[in-house]
Structure formats: C-alpha cells, structure tokens
Amino acid sequence: MAGEFSVIQLWKLGNSCETALNLTGCRNVRIIAKGVLFRFHGLWEGLRIENCENISVEGLEFNIDRKPFSVARILEENDEGAIADIQDSRLLAGNTPFKRAMVWKDGKYTEIDVPSSIELKDDGKLLLRGLQRKGLVGCQLYLWHFYVYRPGIAIYDSSDVNIHSVRIYSFCGYGINGEGSRNISLDGVWVVPEPGLRVSTPVDATHFASCQGRITYRNCHFAGHGDDAINVHGYFHQTKIISSRECIAQYRAGLRDFAHSGRKAVFNVGEHLILTRKDNLEILGEYTLVKSQDMPENAQLLELDGPLPVSDSELLLNAKERCSVELEISGCTFSDHNARSILAKCRRVKIMNNIFRHSVMAAIYIAPESFYAEASVTEEILIKGNIFLDCGTRLPALPYDTACILVQVDAPSLPRQRHGRLCIEYNLFEHTGTKHAVMVRDVENLKLSCNRFSPGQESILLDSRRIGMIDCDCAYIDKTINN
What we know:
By secondary structure, this protein is an all-beta fold. A hairpin with a 4-residue loop joins strand 10 (117-120) and strand 11.
C-alpha cells in the first residue's frame, strides 16, 4: 500500500510518547511498505521491534513535521557574539532549549562552540552570546532543540531483524536504536535530510548497544547528523567491591544512569562478566553472575562465582557477550556528521569499500572509552578499499590532528589494554587542512599496506611504544603521545 499517512499528537513534556507501528512479541513477520511515508506531527516513536524473532521491514519512509532543530542565518557579528534570524516559520519561545549549534559553510558543516546563551529578542532575532568564531556572516545556522527522545525505529531484545530500503529523514532522537538484540541487517537504509535541508537526526543515525551476533550494513547512505552515523558498543558499569565475592554495580555516564534506549542497563544471572580497571581498562578477572538484587538508582548487588581482587583503583564490569558483536560495513556512503561516521567498540570490525566525506571528526574511530562507560577493545579490525574525502573538518580542535582513521584505547593511564590485529590497506585518503590521515596506538599487531595519500600531507602518526608489531610499507611519524 503506497501513500502518505499523517500521525498526529500534541507536543508535550515528559517521557511519554506513542508508537505508530508496534510489533512487540511478533515472530516471523514481513512488512512490505514500498512508497509508504509516515509523517509525524508531535513526539512519536515510529516502529518498535521488541522481543521479536525473524522480522523483515522493507520500504517504509519516516519524517517528522516539526524538526528537532531550527534554521537561521547569521546576519552580523559583534563583541557580544552574533545576531541571527530564524528562517523557518516554526515559532520559538523564550524558554525553547538550544542544545547544539552547527554552521553550513563552504559546502560542508562544522560544529561551532555552543554559545554561552541564546536569547530570543523582541524583534524575533537571536542573540548568540559568547560565540567566538568569526567569519560566519551569511552562513546557514542549525540550532538543535533535542538530543535523544525517541527513535524512528527501536530494536530491543530481538533477533534476526532485517531492515531493507527504509528512509528516515528526521526524528527527535536516533534514526535507528538497537539494544540487547542479535543478528541485525541494514540493507539500503538511508538516514538523510529531507530535500532543502542540511541536517537529519539530532544524534546518531544508528546506535546499537549490548548486542550480539552480527550487525551488517550494506549499501546504506547516511548524511547530516548531530553525532555519529554508526555507533556500536557495550556498557561498562561502575563497580565497588564490598566482600570477597560481592560487589555493587551501576551503569552511569555523567548524570545518566540508564541506557541510550532509556531503559535500565542491568546484568542478568548467568552472564559472564569481565572486571577491569577504569584508569587503563586492564582486565583483572572473569566471572559468572550467580545472584543479583536490585538497589536504588538502577544499581545492583551482585554475587559472583569467584574471589574478587583487592584493588584501590576504580573498577568497571561489562558483560562479555554483550560486547561480542561482529560489525561489517560495506558499500555505504557517509557525509557531514557532527562527530564520526563510524564509532566502533566490539569484538570484530570490517569496514570495506565505503565512501566518507566531511565528517567533523575522524571518519572512523575505534576505541573503548572509560569516561563514557562504553566497552570494549576489538580483537580484529579490517579497514580496506575505502575512500576518504576531506574528513576532519573540526579545526583547530581535531583530536591528534587526525582526519580519517583513529584507533586507540581511550583511558587516562598507562599501560593500557590493547586491541588485537589491525589491517589498513588499499584505501584512498584525500584530506585537506589536517596533518594526519591515520593515527594508531594501543594495538598488538598493525599492518599498513597499499594505501594512497594526498600529495604533501603527513600521512601516518604512530606511537610505536604502544604497538606490539608494525608492518608498514609507507613512511610514518613515530611520536610518543603522552595522554
């Protein structure tokens, strides 16, 4: 059935929302919806796949009428910051939240420092106080009002889910959010701005946490997001030992003590858990969870099957199988993301024959992050046959001056846990304005071969002190990086 369907709900505060298509508990379902567009008015979740098996969805299109951002143009710059006028017809109020600001300039967009305040003036124009960057008069300005609310597609605690030829233009959260699921395939999925606009979702286009099996992307197209295009990871839980076999564990990232789905992040009896130090992600032991008891603020009292170590360090627990994803991405195109195109923290990663353009940060970032409580290191990484075009537009604040590929373990202390094997071969790097195409450290075995680079660029930055073996057929800069 083809056609456009309007789904209406009033805007309202709080976490309540409706789901347009709810497949909770379904088995062996195939939805063919070529030419069907759902246009949402208000705060909705588009499609929920929860506790399902063998689900196939083909051809749906999702869009939201009131975008999670407003569009303005910068009129003038002054000592206070800048003046901008709103270019769309959507009304703003004095208490409208402004979470992030992006500017479209010279055919690409870049994040600007978030103004210290954004004031709606009596004449309807915006005063962006404390905006330091200059030379933006005449540029289009995008102001986000949301980070995460509800996704276009939610995939929770499900297995064997296939999403084909689905398009998501804008939503008040992730385009696709998955958690606790196994074997997910995205083929021909587009998460892109609608015609005439430059941005799509306010956060990641796709985000998968605590999943297992395989996650595959083939022939997908991602453009214009407020964060990453692809983010795949497990969770670290802050842990306090209280006896020889007992500890208290709680997932917390900043002020948030719930998962990206908005659900509780908890361990289940029988799961295999890994205990690590927070400062360097060194593994201290592996255990099976014997007993758990819920505590306030989404914490758990855990009883494990073996003795716990004596340690003065801050500790983390993660579920081994929930970091076991094999991620494969091929034949996709990525452009104009506020952060990375791909952020991966899982067992195996293959990234082959893709095109990356205008990511604000490094196009590919592979690293567990202790600060953000996202696990874990990767056993095997293959990055082959990709094209990188003018990535790393966040200047001068680009991490390690690296535009295309950044691989490390993001933890504050040495020595750190290391990734396994990393192979980077047959890629083309055309990057401008940054020193390095690739930066690598915290890897056991590195191979770099048959890559091509922009003329006159410093191409490879390695910290050999933190790499086990190096097989490289091109010149590189060997530099000790202290942090």
